[in-house]
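Module 6 notes. Inverse folding takes a fixed backbone as the condition and produces residue identities as the prediction. Think of it as a translation problem where the source language is geometry and the target language is the twenty amino acids. Below is one complete input and output pair. Work through it position by position during the lab.
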């Protein structure tokens, strides 16, 4: 099959490489335009562009993939299918009609759960013990097409979004190959795959920086889930009104939970001795293991306690 690959982020890279090395023909990469570079230290990561350059595949980066002029460009390539993964734009019906079979999309959840831009993050945030990948036949509605094939994997208690994304990206490689095989044998009349039940759909909206604020009125386990879910961005953070100092923003990188009837206001420091920093959450304690004061390096709890003289009774948040 002649394939137009549409992707931007690292989640799409394993599938892209496999398609290039397969018997299919990848005619081009369609990716998002490069953001403006602000300063020499702001390195722009372009994993899909890097792969395209490695194999000499043409790159297109339209501001709006649904512009009639670019749709004509795609139509002129005589492609059979669009393979979409981690791209970043919603495709119009006219765009999908530019190829013989429309498009297939590799999505990082067990659809219809977690439709949207950040399915892996929100699955971990909500304490799911299982997630997966789905390949859908694209329709004009976001992540709502019939599911051609699907595979699952467990979420372990220590897994972060970074680790789950890497495993799901690899899991999706074989799934896309299987979906393309089914597509080639499709009669183009019947429904390809299983229709999604919209009543079971849940949302996974794009992450915002404000999502990282820690709400100490949640349980410590829920806060631990948040910390794992929002790595590397936006992170999970709180503030500390240090006596005699300006307010300090604290990023918590690693923590565990402990059941406790502590009887103090949530957000209160309960213990700051012997290398343990414990904070009162709802009916439990958050035991901080790795923490980073704003503008400083990451450190373990013991080093933070010694350097910043945090004490029981002090309030965070």
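Target side of the pair, the amino acids:
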């Amino acid at each position: 099959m002649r394939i137009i690959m549409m992707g931007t982020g690292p989640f799409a890279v394993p599938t892209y490489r496999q398609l290039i090395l397969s018997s299919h023909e990848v005619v081009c990469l369609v990716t998002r335009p490069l953001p403006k570079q602000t300063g020499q230290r702001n390195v722009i990561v372009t994993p899909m562009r890097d792969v395209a350059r490695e194999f000499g595949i043409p790159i297109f980066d339209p501001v709006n993939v649904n512009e009639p002029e670019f749709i004509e460009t795609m139509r002129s390539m005589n492609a059979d299918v669009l393979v979409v993964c981690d791209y970043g734009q919603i495709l119009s019906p006219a765009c999908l009609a530019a190829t013989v079979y429309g498009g297939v999309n590799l999505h990082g959840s067990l659809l219809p759960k977690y439709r949207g831009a950040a399915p892996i993050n929100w699955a971990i945030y909500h304490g799911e013990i299982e997630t997966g990948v789905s390949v859908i036949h694209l329709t004009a509605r976001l992540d709502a097409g019939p599911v051609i094939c699907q595979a699952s994997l467990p979420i372990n208690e220590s897994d972060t979004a970074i680790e789950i994304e890497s495993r799901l990206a690899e899991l999706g490689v074989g799934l896309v190959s299987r979906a393309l095989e089914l597509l080639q044998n499709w009669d183009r009349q019947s429904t390809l795959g299983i229709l999604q039940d919209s009543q079971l759909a849940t949302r996974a909206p794009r992450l915002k920086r404000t999502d990282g604020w820690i709400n100490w009125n949640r349980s410590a386990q829920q806060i631990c889930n948040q910390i794992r879910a929002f790595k590397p961005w936006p992170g999970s953070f709180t503030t500390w009104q240090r006596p005699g100092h300006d307010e300090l923003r604290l990023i918590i990188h690693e923590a565990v939970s402990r059941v406790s009837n502590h009887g103090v206001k949530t957000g209160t420091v309960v213990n700051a001795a012997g290398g343990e920093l414990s904070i009162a959450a709802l009916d439990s304690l958050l035991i901080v293991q790795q923490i980073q004061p704003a503008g400083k390096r990451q450190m373990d709890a013991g080093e933070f306690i010694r350097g910043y003289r945090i004490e029981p009774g002090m309030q965070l948040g």
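Reference fact for the lab report: The mean pLDDT is 95.
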